[in-house]
Amino acid sequence: MYSLASTALWRFMVPCFVMSVLLAGLTAKAVAEPLSFNEALAIAERSTPTIKASAAQEDAARVEVAKGRVALAEAQTQSMRQSVLRETAVAWIGRDTVEQERAYIERCQATPPTGA
User: Fold this and answer.
1) Residues 22, 47: contact at Cβ < 8 Å?
2) Spatial separation of the C-alpha atoms in residues 44 and 57, rounded to whole Å
3) Alpha-helix runs per DSSP H in 1-116
4) DSSP state, 34?
5) What is the pLDDT of residues 83-101, one digit of tens each?
6) For the whole model, what pTM was predicted?
7) Any idea what the Cα angle at residue 64 is, between residues 58 and 65, rounded to 5°?
């Protein structure tokens, strides 16, 4: 798993390295002679794996960030669900208690006192 800092460093370092190598090669060729199409194509083909590797690392980092966000959202959803269940249970217990008390009061009012 890649950290965001290392990904940012790679994103900066790899293109800089590739460009410096290309510029060094192009500068040397520019002094001697112009670069032909085939030479430019060969340089581009040699640098393609490095660019693809850099892009793959960035994609992997994005996937890891997305997985982390999904996991966080799932945890928040589960926490909210537990909270709603708890509040529902507390409300139901309170309502049931009040109904039992009301039923007891009604029974007491319906029954005449004994010993009078």
Assistant:
1) yes
2) 20
3) 4-32, 37-110
4) P
5) 999 999 999 999 999 999 9
6) 0.46
7) 90
